Amino acid sequence: MDRLKEKFAEKALPLAAEVKAMVKEYGHIELGTYTIDQVYGGMKGMIGMVTETSKLDPEEGIRFRGYSIPELRALLPRGSGGENLPEGIFYLLLTGDLPTEEDAREVSNAWARRSHVPKHVFDMLDMLPKGTHPMTQFSLAILAMQTESNFAAAYRKGINKKQYWDPMFEDVMNCIARLPRIAAYIYRRTYKGGEHIEPDPKLDWGANFAHMLGFDDDGMKALMRLYLTIHVDHEGGNVSAHTTHLVGSALSDAYYSLSAGMNGLAGPLHGLANQEVVRWIKDLREYYNGEMPNKEQIKEYVEKTLAEGRVVPGYGHAVLRKTDPRYIAQQEFAQKHLADDELFKIVQMLYEVVPEILKATGKIKNPWPNVDAHSGVLLIHYGLTEHDFYTVLFGVSRAIGVLTSLLWDRALGHPLERPGSVTTDWMKEQIEKHKAKATA
Ligand code: CMX
Q1: What's the distance, CA 153 to chain centroid?
Q2: Of the candidates 225, 314, 336, 367, which lies 20 to 30 Å from 380 by C-alpha distance?
Q3: What is 263-332 written as a DSSP string?
Q4: Which of 235, 311, 315, 322 to mutate to test the pocket of ligand 1 (most atoms within 8 A of CB)?
Q5: In the annotation, is 317 catalytic?
Q6: Closest Cα to atom 16, ligand 1: which residue?
Q7: Is 231 tagged catalytic?
């Protein structure tokens, strides 16, 4: 067994026993109540699952295994260019421990060894119309890799449920290792005439991804490491994480589960918002004849967007109530590397103007920018201008969080997920009963 797998087993199996005993003894303890508002409102704030890898605080933002983004920027191993290696955060999410440089290097090497994508995946992609959205291609390619699932093969043969985590570990490692190659293939076939670039196994995971996309400058490699690190995980309830968890709860393997999760990430209220932000800014500029807009014009355009019943992409969040620390991390990167970039200046102006307008509506719970408000401007600066591709980059990173979580689900023996549902007639009956009780 490799060192990382052994370490995972050492951490996960005792916790599985502990959780089982804990639920047996304390399972009856109540955690809170919930309201009709929450049931109709997308279950926001209702505790409904356990996710070991990260926890989101509305005011402070995400903590990965207890560490905030500013803390991790200081603590995780770095690549050249100063940005953290995504391999490091994977190690942290998987084991709960901070990695050494050697640990991160081992993950890099393991992923390089496991990165071979079966030919039929490329053949399948080549059959799709060129104009197929990159997220559709990405989800299909992940699904096409299901032929490789160790978990599905082991289940078919017959496997003790205590061993589920073992083939799932293999699937998770293999799947993550292959995603940059698949994503780069989609990018090159869609936008670069199908001229593909072979991987360079000497490079770390993020740098190799930039290389296969066709960007060999150090700035883009550093950006890719940052990008792939900060997008990994956002606790369990967001659409991509929850979908992966839900589908996986039927013992669907890592490929089925991740492909489903990516279909959720492809929605404009979730990961697709990163492409929508760039489209929206482009439209804004066109509206003002391609000129650099001033704050008054931006204000006018935001108000026009709201009046048309549309959302301002990149702003708001279902849990966060402050500026997203992932936005701040990207803003700091921009201030360091592209302070004079025109698009960055627009993004900065939006930050000054949008929150006040959203607050004034009186209904938007979080007027502050989220991660997607900033990522496009950085990518465009380094030449990755094809914004329909941006959510695939998000997906490559998000796979790390949702798949490590899925592995923990299998190790801890999480069951089939099956919440109750009711009809509006049932709800009306409850309201009548409540009213009768109040007047009795
Ligand atoms: N622009 C305009 N209206 C917004 C808004 C925004 N940025 N954010 C919220 N609202 C609206 C909602 O649509 C809702 O309107 P109705 O009452 O008319 O239905 C109202 O304000 C209340 O919404 P909320 O409780 O504040 O927000 P939700 O938890 O329902 O939704 C989110 C959260 C992210 C979907 C929403 O803020 C939004 O649509 N933002 C723009 C899209 C975006 O940036 N998504 C990316 C999120 C991060 C990610 O997952 O990647």
Answers
A1: 28
A2: 367
A3: HHHTSTTTTTHHHHHHHHHHHHHHHTTTSPP-HHHHHHHHHHHHHTT---TTB--SS--S--HHHHHHHH
A4: 311
A5: yes
A6: 363
A7: no
pLDDT tens digits for range 10-22: 999 999 999 999 9
**Is 183 contained in some domain?**
yes
What pLDDT does residue 1 have?
64
Number of domains the chain is built from = 1
Rounding to the nearest 10 degrees, give the CA dihedral for residues 8, 61, 178, 247: 80
The reported pLDDT for the residue numbered 167 is 98
pLDDT of 83-127, one tens digit each?
999 999 999 999 999 999 999 999 999 999 999 999 999 999 999
Q: Which amino acid is at 12?
A: A
Q: Which atom of ligand 1 is nearest to the CA of 44?
A: 29
In this structure, the number of other CB atoms found within 10 A of the CB of residue 419 comes to 9
Interacting residues of 324 by C-beta distance below 8 A, sequence separation 6+: 61, 317, 368, 369, 370, 371, 373
Asked if 94 contacts 168 with a C-beta cutoff of 8 angstroms, the reply is no
Residue 378 amino acid letter: L
Torsion over CA of 337, 339, 344 and 346, rounded to 10 degrees? Answer: 180
Q: Which of 231, 372, 387, 414 is catalytic?
A: 372
Domain membership of residue 423 (yes or no) is no
Catalytic status, residue 28: no
- Mean pLDDT throughout 222-239? 98
Look at the block and give the residue holding tokens 């009213």: 435
Q: Which residues constitute the domain of residue 404?
A: 106-269+387-412
pTM over 0.85: yes
Are the C-beta atoms of 404 and 94 separated by less than 8 Å? yes
Arithmetic mean of pLDDT, 260-265: 98
| Residue with CA at minimum distance from ligand 1 atom 50 | 270
| Residue for token pair 């005792």 | 14
- Asked if residue 346 belongs to a domain, the reply is no
Task: For residues 232-237, give the mean pLDDT.
Answer: 98
121 in any annotated domain: yes
* Residue 204 belongs to domain with CATH number: 1.10.580.10
Residue 111, SS3 per DSSP: helix
- The single residue of 317, 374, 381, 414 carrying the catalytic annotation is 317
- Mean residue pLDDT of the chain comes to 97
Q: What is the pLDDT of residue 240?
A: 98
